[in-house]
Amino acid sequence: MLVPRLALRRLAWLALTASVIGLPTARAAEPALTRPAAALPIELSAERLTVTTDRETVAEGDVRLRQGGLLIRADRLSYRPPTDRAAASGGVRLEREGAIFRGDAAELTVRDFSGWFVAPQFDFPPLGTRGEASRIDFASRTQLTAADARYTSCPRPEDGSEPDWQLQARSVTMDFDANEGRAEGARLRFQGVSILALPRLSFPVTGARKTGWLPPTVGLDSRSGLELAVPWYWNLAPDRDLTLTPRVLTRRGVGLDTQLRWLAPEHQGQVDTQWLPDDRVAGRARGLLALRHQHALGALGTLRVDGVRVSDDDWWKDFPRFGRLLTPRLLDASARLDRPMTLGPLALNAYAQVQHWQVLQDAEAPIVAPYARAPRLGLSGRGRGGWLGPLEVSGELELNRFERPDDDSGGLRPEAWRWHALGQVAWPWRAGGVSLVPRLALNAARYRTDEPMADGRREAGRLIGTFSFDAGLRLERDAEGWFGRTSLRQTLEPRLLYVRTPYKRQDHLPNFDAYGKDFNLSSIYTTNAFSGIDRVSDANELTAGVTSRLIDPGDGAELLRVGIVQRFRFADQRVAPQADGDVDGPVQDQRLSDILLFGSTTLLPRWTLDASMQYSPDIGRLQRSILGASYLAGPYRTVSGRYRLARGVSEQFELGWQWPLNAPAAGGRPRSSCSGTWYGVGRINYSLKDSRITDSLVGAEYDAGCWILRMVAERQSTGVSAATTRLMLQLELVGLSRLGPSPLQVLKDNIPGYRLLREADDAPAGAAPTP
């Protein structure tokens, strides 16, 4: 069943419902309500009992009446068996399903739980919430009405004053069988001020969805001004829902966002739209369309459709909040069908795909758009064992049609069909810490271009084979007494990779997807200096490296890792990437590559250190380096720093933190009082090369125990001299809901080691996962 992202049950009313009726959450409601309570016996004990046979039993002094999960305690209680009616007075305490009710007088029909409770106070310890009402009338185990109800998670002030936040309603009626609740005169008060008021409200009282308004959000950024959004949730069907969000932006105008979702056994997905019919700043209509869909087609396989399209190039600057895409200027739209198969020991996958791109160009920093693939048809597979014996095989056959991007109006880039085949066969041998893997690989490609290639032909191809031999060794010894540890294990792991690929001229062939790999610890142990298919580097080289680690044998934790790697060429490389990663660079006559050094450790208490460096023997200097350190003093106390150098390109320092500004008394978070703790959070990226801050995130969180205030300002660079600044303000009422735009994902994505001040075990009542 679908659950709305800002589900209506995350409003006050579900938490109020759960506490008043005594249910821990909506998900626990149905089993509790359907329990066969009428079949359970009634137990009554007291200091004095007066029994009138078959008519009435009067209990006085420390009275306890128990029936299943129901316990009534009082100074005096009378029970009439013919009517199953119990009347309690004097220090009445009622416990049911984890909820505790206290008051002066109550009268209930025990088995069906109908009756009334005068002026009860109620507590719900699992949620840490409480409340009170002038009267609660129970129609049955599934229906009730509360008059003058109040609900909060703040402790009761000793001076009788109003708690920091409180949800109030003149009348609340709940019907669990119909999944319907109604509130009259609802108000949410914070610090004595009404921040939300609704004269009448209908809401769900279980985990099921219900049509209605969701909490509003307010945001502020430097490009759009003040933003107010009020979502309306529409429960269309058990497997479909729609959220309509009118939005007002003070600088740009009025817009509408929509989200349609569907979830069925065979298919699921959603479509999002954003629409500004008249953007006053841009002077035109603007919009966004995003689609995500997955469909199981039985024997035909699985279809996936995914895509985002926007109206103009400036969308990513003006509205950076949508989806927080990894590449906000490069928007994909694709449809892919996959059909898994098996053939003996081979696991195969046949696929068909169509893929197009939208590139959001910036005159100050243009980017090259990828080719569209329409279509892309292929078959891939891998396997081992069975009739393959000790061999490991993998392969890929693929046909692509490459079409020019829409922004290539000059037609300077070729269009073509390409067929390629990749295949590998390896005979690995691994035993006793020794690993030997000889491997043969094949890369074949055939092209048919619409325009003549560099040599005048329209068709051409090439076939290139590669032999590699990967050898590794793992040696171990005990390292007792090292670094004050009683038991450690040290490893020494040398590795050699020899690659032999003959030279084959390729500069006359088109290049659709090949690009030079970055020189790092991942790429140095690969057999091709290029990604993609269209270029294969010639090679006669040996990569040699060694890694040493310190391991705690008790839990397998790695405490220290250091290593060094270098590549030795026995011949010049004639098909090599350029310095900027492009293809068809100059001949590489450097026999010794740069040296890569790396290390990381957690040996120092509370510290994590890591480093990787690329050292050039030719110039005797570091070409690139990354140095990082993080300090974790305890929960919600972390500081991290990272220095990055790419000589001649960039030099940056990054600082991130989460730290209390006024430490609580016990070193933790306040949980029983509303005298709270301020936490500073943030991350700053500073360019030493440009002497300026490129991106920053600075904020503060105030944890008062029963409510949390988050204030975060984010500045994102959108150009050499342009940036967007956003302000996010969120109030979380613990045990109820969160009001305002959420900065939590931004904080988790940007601050290493960031921890939520409220984890999943104390999430708001009724909070639901986002699909």
UniProtKB/TrEMBL annotation:
Belongs to the LptD family. Keywords: Cell outer membrane, Membrane, Signal. HAMAP family: LPS_assembly_LptD (MF_01411). Residues 1-28 form the signal peptide. Together with LptE, is involved in the assembly of lipopolysaccharide (LPS) at the surface of the outer membrane. This is LPS-assembly protein LptD. It holds the Pfam family LptD. It is found in: Cell outer membrane. It comes from the Bacteria. Its main location: membrane. Component of the lipopolysaccharide transport and assembly complex. Interacts with LptE and LptA. GO terms for biological process: Gram-negative-bacterium-type cell outer membrane assembly; lipopolysaccharide transport.
